[in-house]
Design the sequence.
């Protein structure tokens, strides 16, 4: 909570503007204040919406779906224009950004426009899915795709990831090995065999939403174990470790795919 009176006044003004922009949403001032990034109030209305999304407000979620999620289709289409691919990326993106304790919306601090933040996440998700399912056709040139993903990474974090690749890969393989056989098979279907959620649902004779929940649970279990192991094994500062773990989480599709391929 800021202790500078002028900063508090600025936050209150930003809060009032944001609340006026989203009159149907109810966010507490202290919740909003805790999310403000470094005194940057330029995207206060986006931050206000993010606070409501973190709380699971159904009105906020509906607004997100209509104004943000639906708007990333053109970015995804640069990687693959097929409707199924776009829909699957949007489904995965929505789950990652909005669902569960590790939902990425909790990390949004208003330092940039929410639309750009969501678009960046959509590009990363689409590229990861395209690689994980071994899709070979890109609408954009291959250089554009690789440049898009590289431009999202902090060079220092990328170097840190490269330096600790053996430890990360080993931790991923151990975490996957600790899963129950059914969960490992689900990861195999999705990340190695390249089956869509609907295809897996047909094999398992369950609904697509059930497959999605099980896949999400298995992925989260792997990620939680990797976080725990890296924390114990790597002698890194708290900031460096947090950055590395966030990078692993962002690229979990590629990470799990690689670990499964190595294990098989």
Sequence:
């Amino acid at each position: 909570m800021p202790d500078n009176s002028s900063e508090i006044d600025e936050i209150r003004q930003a809060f009032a503007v944001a609340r006026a922009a989203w009159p149907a949403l109810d966010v507490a001032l202290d919740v909003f204040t805790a999310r403000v990034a470094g005194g940057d109030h330029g995207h206060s209305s986006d931050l206000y919406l993010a606070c409501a999304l973190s709380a699971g407000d159904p009105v906020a979620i509906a607004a997100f779906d209509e104004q943000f999620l639906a708007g990333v289709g053109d970015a995804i289409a640069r990687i693959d224009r097929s409707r199924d691919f776009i829909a699957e990326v949007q489904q995965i993106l929505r789950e990652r950004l909005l669902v569960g304790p590790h939902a990425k919306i909790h990390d949004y601090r208003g330092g940039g426009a929410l639309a750009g933040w969501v678009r960046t996440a959509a590009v990363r998700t689409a590229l990861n899915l395209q690689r994980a399912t071994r899709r070979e056709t890109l609408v954009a040139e291959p250089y554009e795709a690789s440049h898009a993903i590289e431009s999202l990474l902090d060079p220092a974090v990328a170097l840190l990831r490269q330096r600790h690749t053996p430890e990360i890969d080993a931790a991923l393989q151990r975490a996957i090995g600790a899963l129950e056989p059914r969960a490992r098979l689900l990861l195999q279907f999705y990340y190695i065999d390249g089956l869509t959620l609907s295809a897996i649902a047909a094999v398992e004779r369950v609904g697509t939403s059930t497959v999605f929940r099980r896949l999400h649970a298995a992925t989260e279990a792997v990620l939680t174990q990797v976080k725990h192991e890296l924390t114990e094994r790597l002698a890194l500062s708290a900031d460096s470790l947090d950055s590395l773990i966030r990078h692993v989480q962002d690229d979990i599709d590629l990470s799990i795919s690689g670990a499964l391929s190595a294990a098989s």
